Amino acid sequence: MEALTVEGKIVHMGETISFGDRFRKCEVVVETASGNKKNPTMELPIEFSNDRIQEAEKFKVGEHVTITCYLGSNKSKKE
Q1: What is the three-class DSSP state of 51?
Q2: Which residues, 6 or more positions from 38, have their beta carbon under 8 angstroms from its beta carbon?
Q3: Which tens digits make up the pLDDT trace of 32-70?
Q4: Per-residue pLDDT band at 77 (split at 50, 70, 90)
Q5: 53: part of which helix (H) or strand (E)?
């Protein structure tokens, strides 16, 4: 998996959502510089799951953070 470091301000903290007994997730939205003059900032949603949720719960809206996240996805299934 590829690592990505995001630096910016927390603008939203989502609630923890449970999917059965084995999987939980929480979304944190970070406002960061986009490098685009027309739209100088962008909001990136970052998901924390299972044991990592404890790290997300330490954040507060308005706080400046640096988060290292790992990019990954599942292959799309077309029918």
Answers
A1: helix
A2: none
A3: 998 888 889 999 999 999 989 999 999 999 999 999 988
A4: confident
A5: helix 53-56
